[in-house]
Amino acid sequence: MSRLRRFEGKNIVVTGAARGIGREIARLALEDGGQVVMVDKNDEGLRSTRESFGELGKLASTLECDVAQPAQIADSTDEIMRRLGRIDILVNNAAINSYVRPEEITPEVWHRELDVCLGGTFFFSQAVGNASMIPNRRGSIVNVGSGASLAGLPRCASYVAAKHGVVGLTRALAVDWGQFNIRVNCVCPGFTYTELSKAMAEKDPEMMRQRELRIPLSKGAQPTEVAEAILFLASDAAASINGETLSVDGGTLAMSSGFSPPRDQI
User: Fold this and answer.
1) Distances from the Cα of 253 to the Cαs of 20, 149, 234, 248, in angstroms?
2) CA dist 188 to 23, 37, 97, 140, 243, Å?
3) Which of 43, 112, 125, 210 is the most exposed place for a label (fewest CB within 10 A)?
4) SS3 of 50, please?
5) C-alpha triplet 215, 216, 221: angle, nearest 5°
């Protein structure tokens, strides 16, 4: 199926782009004509992902950066500006989750998850805002939240705290930067079939079956489906959408009453 060239002439930065949802965001943005910088701590993974895009990968460049380190973010933003001259779209996708009981979370785990998920989102937005979007009086930022941005998850206290913060940060930046024609929105994926979830399913197929039963659509999302929602909000088609949070979760949040969804026809 041919794609729209909705990002023709647009310069796009995607963090956490070496795999999963970030990989699909980068790929689809390239297919839609964008010039993409793929950012990740995993430099080898970035190169492998870019090579997997084939000819399309020639329109992308890669940049190694630990988003938990504001100094690295500043240096990376300077390098992106040197390469591209301006940044039109930023997708803050980088995240980590340690799955630790709250009574066992160490200060190191707590600070690392907050620094990557929330700090990285803020400091990359700040750097890109100051370097390009505010001076140019335009831009679109999409922050990637989680189901953990809107509800509690077991054994994920630091991750839940960080991802709830991402929603609040999205609203705060949307309010402050709307005057500069910068839109800031958030997409919260639910259960998604990434490399990590597939590995977990292989270890515990029954867990996967039970997880899917709790989703009204009876299935998780493909990374491409989440990426499409993110790129919609990033695009000019969403020109009047600012400060919004969109769940891509198959109806999981809607089914938060404590009941299970009906399975009358199964």
Assistant:
1) 22, 11, 23, 9
2) 17, 22, 15, 17, 13
3) 210
4) helix
5) 55
Is residue 2, in this structure, part of any structural domain at all? no
Task: Based on the residue annotation, tell me whether 99 is a catalytic residue of this protein.
Answer: no
Neighbour tally for 197: CB within 10 Å: 16
Mean pLDDT throughout 233-253? 97
Bridge partner residues of 217 (DSSP): none
Q: Please state the domain count of the chain.
A: 1
To the question of pTM greater than 0.85 for the whole model, the response is: yes
Is residue 194 included in any domain, yes or no?
A: yes
Where would I find the H helices in 67-136? 70-84, 107-113, 120-128, 134-136
Phi, psi of 232 (to 5 degrees): -60, -50
Burial environment of residue 99 by CB neighbours within 10 A (0 to 12, 13 to 18, 19 or more): exposed
Q: What is the CATH number of the domain that holds 31?
A: 3.40.50.720
Taking only the tens place, the pLDDT of each residue in 191-238 is 999 887 777 778 788 878 888 888 999 899 999 999 999 999 999 999
Whether residue 149 lies inside any domain: the answer is: yes
Domain membership flag for residue 257? no
Cα dist from 131 to 78, 85, 125, 211, whole Å: 8, 10, 10, 43
126-155 pLDDT, tens digit per residue, is: 999 999 999 999 999 999 999 999 999 889
Which amino acid is residue 26, in one-letter code? Answer: A
How far is the C-alpha of 53 from the C-alpha of 91, rounded, in Å? 19
Range of the domain at 35: 11-249
Of 159, 177, 191, 193, which residue is the catalytic one?
159
* Alpha helices, H only, 154-194: 157-177
